[in-house]
Each structure stands twice: as structure tokens, then as C-alpha cells.
Amino acid sequence: MISSPLFYLLSLVGLALFFTLLEKKTKLKFFDYLPAVVIIYALSMLLAGFGIFEANDAISSAYTLAKANLLPAMLFLMLLKIDFSHFFKLGRTLLLAYSLTVLSLACGFILVSVLFSFNHDMAVAFGALCGSWFGGTANMIAVGSALGVTQEAYGFVLIVDSVNYTFWVMFLLFLVPFAPHFDRYVGAKKREQITTSYEREKGAKRYLLLLFVAGIASLVAQEIARHVELINNTTMTVILATIFGIFGSFTKLKHLNGSSEIASLMLYMLIALIGSKAVFESFNAVGMYVFAGFMVLVIHALFMVVSAKIFKLDLFSITVASLANIGGVASAPILAAAYDKRLVSVGVLMAIMGYLIGTFGGILIGNIMIGLAK
Fold it and tell me: With left for phi above 0 and alpha for psi between -120 and 50, is residue 194 left, alpha or beta?
């Protein structure tokens, strides 16, 4: 049994680091169906369930301290790569498709919350899922922390995200050969010439500098949130860290190499921390969560097809916009490349913008669902 808070944190760091490297270095197809975040959560939860982590005050304090400091630092680093100028060069068709995707997902979550008569716990859980489907897993953690999602509900949301995401990726890739038929059916207009591109990080890694700046951003966000009680402390911290990250994207910090890697490791560490405190009393509700998530996708799909007919949008635009939100940076470029390898940057730029939309949008839609909860 682990009773030392240092040993507790090191074991979780080791777990997160191992699967981060395994996913990145091996490129195993296995991770397409069971992402590393789910494995890390499940294993840390199992370790806690078997009593490996002693339930003492020292470990509880280490958990609270680590989570409180990692979350704003991760958000800050994640947002440094946002490029508004490149995003707005995507053209009218792609920007409209992206906006309609966000709107359709928002409507889907709200309608499903009414149809399924969500209680408070389900509403906050799907608020976190909304953050993920607007942006990514990092947004899910941020929104979930702001809304007060329970550790058990985090587990359910990760399962819903993984199952429905896998289905959605396969379905959208299946549709690629049918693009000409779909485009003729909706009378799609020719897309504008895309002049933007996405540059990968180049140059030496600047891990220590990035960690120092992220630590400062985390500290300042928490201190301001502690003294400015406009909303609850966690929500205020999340919003401030997001704003700091946006400001950072307009500075030379944007060009420092390594921010994405550090943010990913912090994300995996946060997942491991949350899993180490999760205790499942029953898995009976998982089926309902997965089905409700699937219905959000159905509403989203119907909305996008109708929108494509009205606005004459091509299949590439609506599917890549959809996967940029629901799948993120890991999968949107793959779908874009399936249409045309020269359009990979479109998926990347849309997905990165989701990191910004995800936190604010998830908190907004989550609060609407909480207001409608019974």
C-alpha cells in the first residue's frame, strides 16, 4: 500500500508517462479504439479500487494541490498555439461549417438533456462531455472541474466519449467516397481557395521556460480567482487561465517548441489523478450515458445535413468541421487527408480553435442543462 504522497504522485506520473510514450512511439492501432486517456483512467481507478493508495490526509492534500495547479497550467499551454489569423483565412464555407457544427452540437446536448430528463449529476457530466466535443479531453477536465463533476461521472463521460468517438470516426471515413454524390444532392458550391497552412513546431525544445511561464500563469490565475469572487473559485481559475493562454498566443511564447507535449503530459497526469479518486458503486448507468451521447450525434448529423442543403455546403466541409470538434487534432487531419492531403491543415486549424471554444462553450451549455435538470 502506498502511503507517501510523493510516491503516490510519482506512480501516477509514471503511469501517465508510460502510456504517453507508448501511444506516441508505437502508433499502435489499438489506441484508435481505446485511447491512452481511457487506459490511464481505468488503471489508476483499479489501483485505487484495490487499495494500493492509502486514504490518508497527506495523499488527499497532494491530490488537491496537484490538480489545482496542473489544470490552469495545462489550459495556458494548450492555448498558446491558437492562430486567429490563419483560422479566419479558411474561407466562408469552412467557417460557416465550423459555426454550424458548434451550434448543432449545442442544440443536440440541450435537446437530449430534455428528452432524457437529466438530473443534476447527468447534466454536469454531459456539460463536461460537451466541452470535450467542442474541443478535446483537456476541455472536458476544465469544464468538469468548473461544473463540479463527480469522479465517478468522469469515468462514465470518458467511456461515452471513447465509444461514440470511435463510431463517429469510422462513420465519417466511410462517407468519403460518397462525397461527389452528396455534393450533387445538396448543390454544393465550390469551396474558396484556401491560402492558409499550419506549421509544425520547429527548433529546440524549451521545456523549462514553458514550465516556468505556465507555473506563473497558474499561480496568478488562482490568486486572482481567490480574491475576485465573481463566480466559484474553480470556474474563475479556468476562465482566467484560458484568457492568459489567448494573450500568450499573440506573443513570442507561441513559437516556443514543446508546449503541446507538456500540455499533453499534464492532461494525462490529470486523468490519472481523477481516476485515483474514482469509486464506482455501479456501472448500470453507463448504457444510458452512451445512448444519450449517441443521440447527441444523431441530432448533430441531421442538423448538419439540413444545413448543408440550405447553405449548399460540401461533404468535406461539414465532416471535417464535425470531427475537428468531436475528434480533435488527433483525427480531423486524418479525415481531411482522406479527401485531399493538401487540406490537412484545415483539420488542424479547426481542432486547435476548439480548445478555445470547448471551455467557454462547455461551461455555457453545461449551465443551461443544469438549469433544465429535474
Answer: beta
